[in-house]
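**Backbone geometry record:**
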Amino acid sequence: MYRDLLNFEYIYKFKVILIIIRNF
């Protein structure tokens, strides 16, 4: 369960980075 939560956090950060890149 902790591992899934950590994985979700990485996915979330990755999506945020993609959104920031698209804004440029």
